[in-house]
Amino acid sequence: MDLYEAARQGSIDGIESAVEKGCDVNALDEYGNSPLWFAVQSGHLDACRILIARGARVERQSPSILELAVQGEHAEIVELLWPYCKVERQHRSLETAISLGFHGIADFLVGTRVFEYQKSQARDIELLIRDGFSRREITAFQQWERFIFVRRSEKLNLHRIFFDYALLLATKADRNAGLRLVNLLLEGEKPLADANCMININKEIETPLTNAAEKGNLEILATLIERPNTRLTICGKYNWPAFLHLLANSEPIASEKGRAIAGKLSTESLPDSFLIDHKGSRLETVFKNVLRLGDDALIKQVIDFVHGAAGICILPLLVRANETKGLRWILNRDIAHASKPPPILWVLLCNFFKCDPNSKALTTFIRVAEFLIEKAIWDRMVLMCLNSRNFGFVKQFFYPLNEIPPREVAEETLAAFSQASTDPSLVREWAEKGFANAALWSVIQSGIWKSPAFESLLSCSNIDLDEPFPRRKSSDTAEDNIPLPPLSGNSTGEKRKFPFRSPTGISLKSPLDPGMPQSHALQDYQMQLMLLEQQNKRRLMMARNEQMEMTAGKGILAWTGGKSPLAWAAANGNVELVEALLRSSRVNVNSQDAQKRTPLMHAIAVNDWQTVEELLKIGDIDLNLRDSEGRTAVFHAAQGGELHIIQLLTQTQKVDFSIRDCNGESVQEIAENKGKQDVVAALAT
Length: 685
Fold this sequence. Notes:
Helix content is 52%, strand content 1%. The chain is an all-alpha fold. Helix 5 runs antiparallel to helix 6 and helix 26 packs across helix 28. A two-stranded antiparallel ribbon has the order 1-2. The radius of gyration is 36 Å and the shape is flat. It has 38 helices and 2 strands. It has helices at residues 3-9, 12-20, 35-42, 45-53, 65-71, 75-81, 91-99, 103-111, 122-131, 140-150, 160-171, 179-186, 208-215, 218-226, 242-247, 250-253, 256-265, 283-293, 296-306, 315-320, 324-331, 343-355, 361-374, 381-387, 391-394, 407-420, 424-432, 435-446, 453-458, 518-551, 565-571, 575-582, 599-605, 609-616, 633-640, 643-651, 667-674, 677-684; strands at 199-201, 204-206.
């Protein structure tokens, strides 16, 4: 038995034997743990005694062995180890004992009187403040409350920093649950804790005021604000004051009391050197909340509070408040390459203009839109919609084409489509740029396709109901600007045809051109056809690779799987959506995806016989289209072994049983290999 195992088991004989053989009692294993660490972890008091007697060191081990004993509630081992510890670095042991409710151990540690730090040097206190405390569960404050409350009649020999830590825990307990402890620590002329304390918690500075604001504890906030010496501009986490922490919490500021407290917190100005979250990522939440509340006074307070530290992210707030000076400062910067405000901020601003279309700020918004369009940051259709006061329809333009807007934006786009459709040029350009397909997928993903407006969206002449989304982006070269060939192959009822164009830089001539000798003309024509076929194959491969990447999760819209809307609905067993799509005569029931699978094949794959029935009602459906493995719909049904679906297919009398897949197998042979006798019998009839 090695020394580590003997210590883990608490075997005195094993420890003595290992030491006599020359084992080092301070040697660390591969994980950096000593034999004493294993003995403490297992709670073996006698093993700890013998190891210490043999020279085992208590200090210089991480994590702290004393901390380990406290966590395991091994009180006798704590008392054994204590004389060997450097107490100025063991403040976490007391914090752990109280936080976990091990008050017996805590009483022992407090009884040593060393945590009062009366005899310690100033550097020890500074070390404790710098090292800070660990982040505990929010329920830890309850144990501190019990410990302090029971002993409040006694003299607690503790340095103030421990009471400050208890105050921090109490201020961030959920739903003002720590209010009693806050009052206990701050009562009297000489309170136990400092309301303006700042302590390092896991490398972040926390204060009572900012903690309460972040958690939205309005009762605790009110208590702290009422204290005459509380500094309202003190900064905590993220170097934020309490004012911003409170605004980042949507629930408390929705109440009248929350807004009143926010007003009090913002009364004092901050120094000019104050910087906030230079990336602006956290401030987005603050701006979103104040825009949604629609309180102009609060918006101006935020603008005054953050100064220029928020960068371009503050732009929607400046528009809303009609702060032209601040707008000029923002817009004069080179924002073409700057990070733009998130779309949700512009959406909330549009909500304001929709409710208040006569606002003076609308003129400012339109000027900002013109600037962003000039910088090629926004599409010019934004301006068209703003001028027509179609604030619902304009919201979608803030989101990139390869992103699905939130449900609210999708609903507004669908509802405002009828208004936008009165302008044919707008709708035509909207559809040609891909926004129609984006809107279609947004509606499908949001589950709002049951709206009557969905029918009008399907009727949009330029929308491609068989196009997987997002479309492939074209490059600036002439060769790449040639449209991709359809992925559906030569399918029955196919609407999209690949335009026959000559390869770049080559004029394609007829072999019967009288100005060219017949043999040379035929040879040249065949060569150009071969080049064209190679280019088509390359483009088809690129398109399939892109769709495969989306399916693998690399694309933002990976959930579409590269399918058309009809195929996606069939693959997800959404028969109602299938019915809605099929009501449009422009939907191609025979479209195929990158693997050449049809909507019918996708419905069969999920054993959705109801969708299969709906698809089979379409007169020009082709049951004999092959996928990339050469298999038709009936092959997929045979593989799944669903007798009812087999019967639905065979009853159409359109199934070609002579077709063999790429492996040369027929559907009957596949069914036989599966051992489904009822399927074999159905196919035989």
